[in-house]
């Protein structure tokens, strides 16, 4: 058994697709109409056959509440691994990404947290 898709709730699929592809550099794998919304997944440039990130609309009240509560509490919804967190931080800041936590060492890892502009906090980690 392996993880093939991990979903993240977003307020606006088009805005999320723009942010995750153009700002973060993920590659769109699927964009399929599903009625009012779309099945949009992205993958890492370095692993295009790897785990897909699904940009899922947060229209269900439970999803919206879950997303808003995590954001309000400062809890990231997911974590992305990076090779050089200080370089990644610098590049993202130059692109206008707003961090709620600058790179900080936590034991043998370094983490940082940013706002994805779509209702979520995302953590990046260098192991």
Automatic annotation (TrEMBL):
GO MF annotation: an example: lyase activity
SUPFAM superfamilies associated with the record: Glyoxalase/Bleomycin resistance protein/Dihydroxybiphenyl dioxygenase
Keyword Lyase: yes
UniProt keyword annotations, A-Z: Lyase
Organism domain of life: Bacteria
Domain named VOC: residues: 1-127
Any Pfam family hit: Glyoxalase
PANTHER family, alphabetized: GLYOXALASE/BLEOMYCIN RESISTANCE PROTEIN/DIOXYGENASE, GLYOXALASE_BLEOMYCIN RESISTANCE PROTEIN_DIOXYGENASE
Protein name, entry field: Lactoylglutathione lyase
The species this protein was found in: Oceanobacillus picturae
Organism placement in taxonomy: Bacteria, Bacillati, Bacillota, Bacilli, Bacillales
């Amino acid at each position: 058994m392996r993880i093939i898709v991990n979903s993240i709730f977003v307020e606006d699929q088009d805005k999320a697709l723009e942010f995750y592809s153009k700002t973060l550099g993920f590659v769109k794998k699927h964009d399929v109409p599903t009625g009012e919304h779309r099945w949009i997944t992205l993958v890492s440039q370095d692993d295009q056959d790897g785990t897909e990130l699904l940009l899922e609309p947060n229209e269900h009240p439970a999803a919206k509440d879950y997303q808003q509560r995590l954001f309000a509490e400062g809890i990231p919804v997911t974590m992305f691994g990076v090779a050089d967190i200080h370089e990644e931080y610098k590049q993202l800041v130059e692109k206008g990404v707003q961090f709620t936590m600058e790179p900080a060492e936590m034991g043998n890892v370094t983490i940082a947290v940013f706002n994805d502009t779509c209702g979520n906090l995302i953590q990046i980690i260098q192991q």
